Amino acid sequence: MTTTINGILIGPVQDFPEGEIRPATMPDGTNLAVYNVGGTIYATADLCTHGEASLSEEGILTGNIVECPWHFGTFDVTSGAPTGMPCTVPLKTFPVKVIEDSVYVEF
Ligand code: FES
Fold first, then answer.
1. What span, in angstroms and rounded, lies between the C-alpha atoms of 29 and 25?
2. Among 3, 15, 27, 35, which residue's CB has the most CB atoms within a 10 Å radius?
């Protein structure tokens, strides 16, 4: 059986441990924050939409919510929706596929 993959390989699934945030970079230089929430992997733009803090470097993941430590704004990483002030602009999200223990981001 042939599997068609429309995405960029960002690494093996073990590089994205549960409850953690890791960085990834797309071919055009776009930086992502990649989250493992209960075994499911999600990807968003790396920069907080409030003040451009790096969520992969400085964000704190609790369940499906990432908190930005600059001003304590929060987002739902599964949808990108802002969930806590001062963040009001959603994070861009990127679809993620895990195929045979490899993680791909559609781009
Ligand atoms: S920079 Fe993220 S909440 Fe202000």
1. 6
2. 35
**pTM here?**
0.93
Asked whether residue 59 is domain-assigned, the answer is yes
Domain contains 67: yes
pLDDT one-digit tens code per residue, 48-75 = 999 989 999 999 999 999 999 999 999 9
| In-domain check, residue 106 | no
Structure tokens at 46: 């790396």
- 73 CB near ligand 1 (under 6 Å): yes
Whether 70 lines ligand 1, by a CB cut-off of 6 Å, is: yes
Q: Assess whether the C-beta atom of 13 lies below 6 angstroms from ligand 1.
A: no
